[in-house]
Amino acid sequence: MDILDLYSGIGGFTLGLEKTGHFKTKMFCEIEDHCVKVLNKNFPNVPVFNDIKKLNVGAGEFDVFTGGFPCQDISIAGKNAGINGEKSGLWKEYKRLIKQGKPKYAIIENVSALLSRGLEIILQDLAEIGYDAAWTLYDTKYFGKPQRRRRVYIVAVRDGIPSDSDLFETGLRDLGESGKKLDAFNKGFRWDFKKGKGDEHTFTFITRQRSNEFKETGLSGTLAKRDYKSYTDLVIQSNTIRRVTPQERMNLQGFPTNWLDGCELSNKEKFTCNGMSIPVVKYIGELLIKFDIFVNKPLGADFFADGKYRYYDGLGGSYFLHKKEKIKSVFSNNWLYNLKDYFQLTNKEK
User: Three-state SS for 73?
Assistant: First the structure.
């Protein structure tokens, strides 16, 4: 699916979605010069438009829009002007482009404070231009990166969300077993200096609290642009206390360590390069592909695998349709079930 990546930053949305193998960015829109340098270095063949207010797109030109519009007026640490503030008010440009471009899907990201400072307005705006939407809250620490980063993600759907679908698979989170696993997972981050628990060879994050004191923890605080002048974390490693480096900040987001290399950025500019967590975006991309397969399934299809909708043949195998002709699969069902793009569509016995 072709992507228009808005408020692109250093390309986190694109990197995460392209890692699924199902998305390809055709255009960026980013106004900050140092971020444009990073985009040009890592995506040399993708054009960058610099002013979202002047951007116009054709209907159906892109399949997916992505963007984390500015959070400064929404964030608890920000200006508190809300979604109609000078910066965060750029949401209206996103809405305008969705209405104009009519993408199949639009993915929207912002800080957790959006839940009480604009989420309802966004959902109303999307409904106004004919889009259904589902939303959720994800924390980076549950996606393989030791950073506390809670973000709201909204997926807007042009053609509607069926009542029997679960785009974000929230049903899986309601299982009692999930709570036990999360509790055990969270305990794994804790470090008790008095009792000497934990692996002494790993990083220990010392995180600034609201009282301006520091607390030992196994997690990085939420990375922010202001960290250059007012850092959140100190790190203890090999008996040395220091700040988190720009390269480590890239790793905490899921970017390659060399993502900023060769871009000739100042240290301050490197610290402002925060944004999407790549593993989270990749996961959302995988969910979106599953949803797309589900909503476009032909009548009677039992499962999807190897790029095709498939039907059980009642003899332990399966077939697919080609120009309305049944073509028996040369692959066993068990082999198909193990493919990366396998997705079950019915409750029939495998």
Answer: coil
Hey, which residues does 216 pair with through a beta bridge? 206
3-state SS class at 155: strand
Is the CB of residue 311 less than 8 Å from the CB of residue 318? Answer: yes
Cβ(109)–Cβ(71) below 8 Å: no
Q: CB neighbours (10 Å) of residue 319? A: 16
Are 260 and 273 in contact by the 8 Å Cβ rule? The answer is: yes
| Amino acid identity at 181 | K
Residue 150 is encoded by which pair of tokens? Answer: 């809670």
Looking at the annotation, which residues are catalytic? 71
DSSP symbol at 244: P
What letter represents residue 132's amino acid?
D
pLDDT (tens place) for every residue of the chain, 350 residues total: 999 999 999 999 999 999 999 999 999 999 999 999 999 999 999 999 999 999 999 999 999 999 999 998 897 765 677 898 888 999 999 999 999 999 999 999 999 999 999 999 999 999 999 999 999 999 999 999 989 999 999 999 999 999 999 999 988 876 666 677 777 667 665 555 555 554 544 556 666 655 566 666 678 888 888 787 777 787 777 778 888 888 989 999 999 999 999 999 999 999 999 889 999 999 999 999 999 999 999 999 999 999 999 999 999 999 999 999 999 999 999 999 999 999 999 987 66
DSSP 87-103: TGGGHHHHHHHHHHH--
Amino acid identity of residue 140, one-letter, is: T
The domains of the chain, with CATH numbers, are 2-174+275-293 (3.40.50.150), 198-271 (no CATH), 300-344 (no CATH)
